[in-house]
Amino acid sequence: MRPIQMVDLKTQHSHLQPELNKKILEVVNSAAYIKGAEVQKFERELEKYLDVKHVIACANGTDALQLAMMALGLKPGDEVITTNFTYVATAEIIALLQLKPVLVDVHPDTFDILIDELESAITSKTKAIVPVHLFGQCSQMEELLQLAKKHKLYVVEDTAQAIGADYIFKDGRVAKAGTMGDIGTTSFFPSKNLGCMGDGGAIFTNNDDLAKQLRIIANHGQSKQYYHDFVGVNSRLDSIQAAVLRIKLRHLDEYCQARNTAANNYDHLLVGVNEIVVPARVKNSTHVFHQYVLKTRGVNRDDLKTYLNEFGIPCNIYYPVPLNEQLPYKDDSRKFTNTDYLCQSVLALPMHTELGEDQQGYIINKIKEFIAL
């Protein structure tokens, strides 16, 4: 059995190595390292895959969130609602732009932002909602979009963990994660389902005016060279990363299917293990399993993690501390019962496209051994 990795990029890339080497060498020989043809081709190909009008590549997923907020023209003091159970970047950008992050609890099974609590958090200062498609499946976008329309709010989808997931509306219409709100954002960090060999990110929108604004802001606020109409930033995807992403985009659906196969195998192996709750699937979204996050029940999660680590099994806690308990976002005014429960019980097992059944069997056997102690 191969050593178990949380993410096995080396093996994944080995299957693509000749094509990657050829394409990277082409970029090196072209000397078009910034804003080259590879970036433009990648944007067009991702637009086609997502069925969205505009893709704007940028330097990373955090920049994508920042560009989205800047393009909406929000003002200091405006409130932006997001989930309390997510990586810090979502709230970080809101606060960085002197906006006020308003945190909402999540569903204890699907980790999805609670729609009822979201509506009760809306005030006259609320300007936007940032749903996070956590771990690989979409938030309840139909209800969320209706709520946003009712209150005239922008919707920015954080799709860093769910690129490739499909959302199915009640009328049968299907849309890709990140293409339903005003703006969608994603990360191409190497461990993502669609990851490059460094940092990278992108923004999606069907709004022509927002797309134009996003491109200007990402390029120092320039409408044309040396003419700066807005305060902007410098955020761009380099050509080598775009070339890598073009190759891997062609395999994204295959990667998502491999992750689903691994997730289903985990589920099967955990049947009858009452101390472990396998990930819930929502009815109206496919799941691309960026992470396979289980919950412990009646056993100590931290002790289980330590036990697995001792036997060469990596596993992570996403997330051990809720945002409302992080110093910059401290909020003692409300209870976040479900988030608190999840922070004490979740554990992510190894999940990637190269995960072997023998590795999964070993992992689950060690979980069973721990429970039997």
Could you describe the 3D structure shown?
With 373 residues, this protein is an alpha/beta fold. The chain has two domains: 9-249, Aspartate Aminotransferase, domain 2, CATH 3.40.640.10; 252-372, Aspartate Aminotransferase, domain 1, CATH 3.90.1150. Helices cover 39% and strands 15% of the residues. The strands form four sheets. Strands 1-9-8-5-4-2-3 form a seven-stranded mixed sheet, with helices on both faces. Strands 12-13-14 form a three-stranded antiparallel sheet. The longest helix is centred in the N-terminal third of the chain and has 22 residues, at 9-30.
Chart the SSEs and their pairings:
Blueprint: H1 9-30, H2 37-50, E1 54-58, H3 61-71, E2 79-83, H4 89-96, E3 100-104, H5 115-120, E4 126-130, H6 141-151, E5 154-158, E6 166-168, E7 174-176, E8 183-187, E9 201-205, H7 208-218, E10 222-224, E11 227-228, H8 239-249, H9 252-269, E12 276-277, E13 292-296, H10 301-310, H11 337-345, E14 346-349, H12 357-372
Parallel strand pairs: 2-3, 2-4, 4-5, 5-8
Antiparallel strand pairs: 1-9, 6-7, 8-9, 10-11, 12-13, 13-14
